[in-house]
Amino acid sequence: MKAAFTIAGLVVLATLPWWLDNPYILHVLIVTGIFIIAAISLNLLLGYAGQLSLGHVAFFGIGAYASSLVSLGFDISLLTLKPKPVWMAMLAGIAAAGLCGWLIGRIAFKVRGAYFVIVSISFVEVVRLVAVNWVELTQGPMALNNIPPLSLLGISFLKKPSNYWLVLTVAVISYVLVKRLVQSKAGRAMVALAENEPLARSVGVDVTRTLVLATVVSAAMAGAAGALYAHYIRIVDPDVFLFIYTVTMVIMVVTGGKGTLAGPIIGGLIFGLLPEGLRAFSIKPEIQWIIYGVLMLAVVYFLPAGIVPALKRRLRWLS
Amino acid sequence: MALLAVNNLSVRFGGLLAIESLSLEVREGEVLSLIGPNGAGKTTAFNAISGYLRPTGGEVFFKDKNIVGRNTNDIAALGLVRTFQKTSVFPNRSALENILIGLHLTSKQSPFAIMLALPSVARDERLLAAEAERILDFVNLQNKKDELAGALPYGEQRLLEVAIALAAKPKLLLLDEPVSGMNPSETASFMAKLAEIRALGITILLVEHDMKMVMGVSDRVVCLSQGRIIANGTPAEIQSNPEVIRAYLGERHKRVVS
Fold first, then answer.
1. Which domain range does residue A86 map to?
2. Which of A144, A290, B79, B194 pairs as cysteine with B171 (C-beta 3.0–4.6 A)?
3. Alpha helices in chain B (DSSP H)
4. Which of residues 206-245 of A touch B (CB under 8 A)?
5. Residues in chain A within 8 Å Cβ distance of B109
6. Is residue A107 part of a domain?
7. How many domains does the structure of chain A reveal?
8. Residue A136: inside a domain, yes or no?
């Protein structure tokens, strides 16, 4: 039953560009999809390992910048790099974000809870300042332009449908990876730490190792989302590190249901598509934001665990 | 042979000397109880031995290795596992998942194998599930396996807690007031369970205020008061020790038990 729904949903999503010939809606779906990948990655850290990272967009931005720079090549006094193929650049972006995740994991998990929140906010601010001021490398506020789109095995990912399929594929892979992790020893250790750390340690869970694994996977996945973004939008500036993007990801995860696999997808679809949906009814921007805020408050107030757990409860109650 | 040897262990919190050069030995296969009035330093000693608290001085040898300064999870991997004074489970997970978390050290799965979904991971998960069911059977919670741990009645949560510790395959099990808050019949069945645990070859260090249980299950009893050992001997010797009676048991209890 559940498998049938999943397959039907995937078929609808995969065939969408053929029966929905509207570049604008496709664009909205691509951007939403990229945010959903980032939300899935944040959910691993926030929903399962129980660590609130308010600097999650740093990994997204690092993935975007690293991938763009490797594909464009750069020439700074320290190092010269010739332009590399985009697929290689994207892998570099994922690796760079993962490495930063490892570093943050090592440092930040010495300091936990509220201190981790502060470290994560500081981290994104430092990275943003580097992006603004290291003009030689990043062009600063002038932004990195003309970022090449991905082309792989003779297919160019310049058009919207191909980008849509690319984002959908990466999203499915991210979902599957997180699913496998949380339904195994590694995910149980993360959940155990979030629920009762002293007890988890008493049965042999290594705190640092478990949390570093969670940050590395989460950061690399956010980096992948950033790389997809950079090669789709084809321009990256320091605004990619704005706090509002982290907040958007947190809202998606929390309203959808943190610590559930479907949560970031449902939350991401609602809060990713909502502003565009409201715009379609030509509602004034100010009103749009009020509706957005009220809806968010309503979800958090009436469904504190999120939409997905509430739906699950309702389904169980019906059957 | 001493499985656990504590030598001159001291713990100081600021100006307060919580434990003052405590020395004791736990021999392989025995049940040793640590008793004493509240604030005597029993739980502090547990915390220092199991790596939750760094002692100010002294040594703790487990299987002839000095474990002072090691991480709790490394100590658990050596085979020293503890439970907690306050009920401690993973409340939002099912009873079965609680045991699966307890089996962390048994489980052999590398992160890469997990993400690639290698067949070895699925095989390991099946073994773990079977093992978890077996452990739930052992504590008679098999029909509660799908219930959330936090929703179980108090007595069953305490049993689940011991089951989680057993899942970590201890050589030495430190139980911190396992029957506090249990009614007499629950306590009696827990004492029977303790005998079964002992029969598995697990050595037990027990902190408990229920004297009926302590005197019933222990081979030896150590009495702490104000951070120091004031008596050490068989249950019968402890019950008639004048200093223990004065500091902890009281005259009335002496008459009841003797």
1. 24-242
2. B79
3. 42-49, 72-78, 95-102, 111-115, 119-138, 154-167, 184-199, 211-217, 235-239, 242-244, 251-257
4. 206-207, 213, 217
5. 184-186
6. yes
7. 1
8. yes
| Cβ contacts of B53 on chain A, cutoff 8 Å | none
Whether A201 sits inside 8 A of B91 (CB atoms) is: no
Nearest CA among A243, A265, A245 for reference residue A256: A265
Tell me the two tokens of residue B216: 């019933």
Residues B81-124 have pLDDT tens digits of: 999 988 899 999 999 999 999 999 988 888 888 988 888 899 99
Average pLDDT, integer, range B181-194: 90
A136 CB within 8 Å of a chain B CB: no
Report how far residue A161's alpha carbon sits from residue A168's, in angstroms, rounded to the nearest whole number. 10
ipTM of the complex: 0.90
Tens of pLDDT, residues A254-282: 999 899 999 999 999 988 888 788 877 77
pLDDT one-digit tens code per residue, B102-111: 999 988 888 8
Is the Cβ–Cβ distance between B159 and B151 less than 8 Å?
no
pLDDT tens track for A186-221: 999 999 999 999 999 999 999 989 999 999 999 999
Question: 3-class SS at B111?
Answer: helix
- Tell me yes or no: is domain B2-88+171-257 CATH 3.40.50.800: no
Q: CB distance B73–A207 less than 8 Å?
A: yes
State how far the Cα of A92 lies from the Cα of A218, in Å rounded to an integer: 16
Give the nearest chain B residue to A177 (CA atoms): B115
Indicate the average pLDDT of chain A. 87
CA nearest to B84 within chain A: A199
Residue A54 domain flag = yes
Residues of chain B with CATH 3.40.50.300: 2-88+171-257
Nearest CA among A239, A218, A217, A268 for reference residue A33: A268
Q: Who has greater pLDDT, B230 or A150?
A: B230
Contacts of B158 in chain A (CB under 8 A): none
Cα(B33)–Cα(B36) distance, integer angstroms: 10
Please indicate, yes or no, if residue A177 is contained in any of the structural domains.
Answer: yes
pLDDT band for B255, please (50, 70, 90 cuts).
very low
State the pairing for strand pair B228-233/A80-81: unpaired
Determine, for residues B164 and A199 on separate chains, whether the beta-carbon distance falls below 8 Å.
Answer: yes
Helix axes A160-182, A185-195, angle to 10 degrees: 70
Q: What residues have CB less than 8 Å from B133, skipping those under 6 apart?
A: B96, B142, B145
Judged by CB atoms closer than 8 Å, whether chains meet at B104 and A191 is answered as no
pTM attached to this predicted model: 0.89
Strand locations in chain A (E): 74-75, 80-81, 151-152, 155-156
